[in-house]
Write a structure and sequence with these properties.
The chain is an alpha/beta fold. The protein contains 13 helices and 11 strands. The strands form 2 sheets. Strands 1, 2, 3, 4, 5 and 6 form a 6-stranded mixed β-sheet that branches. It has a 5-stranded mixed β-sheet with strand order 9-8-7-10-11, sandwiched between helices. The protein is globular.
């Protein structure tokens, strides 16, 4: 089958579109990306999305319009990736659209009672003429799941090692992990959950301290110029989310722009300069991931396959590698997958 996968994560910086060929049936599935692109959101859309994620800024009329507008943009991304592959829409069997997450309702006991991804699938189907499947996360919640992470089944199909345990760690706006038993282990099951903040707090802090001139710490250069405040880091790791037992999921409702602003203010109160604030929040992402492995990994992992935007931040990767030693930290490319387009492939 030829399927277009469309994905936009909690960083809300654009759409990954992948035209994929899928053959076989579980557990023996072969997947190949034929063509993949990233479409940056038009000017103003990232802020519209981030505003939609904030209860004090979101309005039902603007949310309704954003849902329709994103449908148009996702449809254009699907048509573009098909065209760049030299095909026409009639050759494509399905579109899978993740949409754009704006909210998870997480109850005090950790249960997810609702999740909302906007991007009108009816618009995508109408503009492309291709059957479009969406609402993956609400379906998981309806079935009693957490709504995230959803890549774990594809990780299990595509990334298990013959003989040892692996962890597949995504670092997008949030961090999520899938612990994979080896193919030789037919008894134990994978375990997947959100580890906590990924890039969201780092990005929020960078935007704040640069007055919006930078949206993220390119190449980790700001963090590299700072020092980690270890005492503050220890306090930050006392957040109750990190101790909550899996399965669990989180998002910007817990680790979003509001918290990033508070943490920047706290950093200034502690006498830290801008790079040291960013360095400490970068260390928080690395430390919370390593802490999740220590607390919850079903078995020691030999390899960690790293993906998402955080995998392109050398400062974060260095901190994470040091904390996960002796496990080897690998890229998706090292195991035959394109990390930039993996999540689009999944959907």
């Amino acid at each position: 089958m030829l399927i277009v996968g469309l994905m936009s994560g909690t960083s809300a910086d654009g759409i990954d579109a992948a035209l994929c060929e899928i053959n076989g049936a579980p557990p023996h599935v072969q997947a190949r990306i034929i063509q993949a692109i990233t479409c940056v959101y038009p000017a103003g859309y990232q802020q519209r999305i981030l505003d939609a994620c904030l209860p004090d800024r979101s309005r039902v009329d603007s949310l309704c319009q954003l849902n329709a507008d994103l449908g148009e943009i996702f449809a254009a991304a699907a048509l573009r990736v098909i065209r760049e592959a030299g095909l026409t829409p009639t050759a494509v069997d399905l579109i899978g659209s993740h949409g754009q997450t704006v909210w998870h309702n997480v109850q005090p006991d950790g249960r997810v009672s609702a999740t909302l991804q906007i991007t009108e699938a009816a618009v995508i189907a109408e503009r492309t003429g291709i059957t479009t499947v969406s609402n993956f996360r609400p379906r998981d919640v309806a079935a009693g799941g957490q709504g995230a992470p959803l890549t774990s089944y594809a990780d299990w199909l595509l990334l298990r090692h013959p003989d040892h345990w692996r962890a597949v760690q995504n670092i997008g706006g949030m961090g999520n992990v899938t612990f994979l038993p080896p193919i030789s282990d037919s008894i134990r099951s994978p375990l997947a959950f959100d580890t906590g903040p990924g890039n969201a707090l780092i990005d929020g802090a960078v935007s704040r301290i640069t007055g919006g001139k930078l949206a993220y710490d390119r190449d980790g250069l700001i963090a590299a110029d700072g020092r980690i405040d270890e005492n503050w880091l220890t306090e930050l790791l006392n957040h109750p989310y990190y101790r909550r037992q899996p399965p669990k999921t989180t998002g910007r409702e817990l680790f979003g722009a509001g918290l990033a602003d508070q943490l920047v203010d706290e950093g200034y109160r502690r006498g830290l300069d801008d790079p040291s604030i960013v360095a400490t929040l970068t260390a928080l992402t690395a430390a919370s991931i390593a802490d999740a492995y220590r607390r919850f990994a079903p078995a020691p992992v030999s390899e960690v396959i790293l993906g998402g935007g955080g995998a392109r931040n050398p400062s974060l990767v260095k901190m994470l590698s040091e904390r996960l030693h002796p496990a080897a930290v690998l890229t998706h490319e090292a195991v035959g997958l394109d990390s930039d387009n993996k999540e689009a492939l999944v959907f």
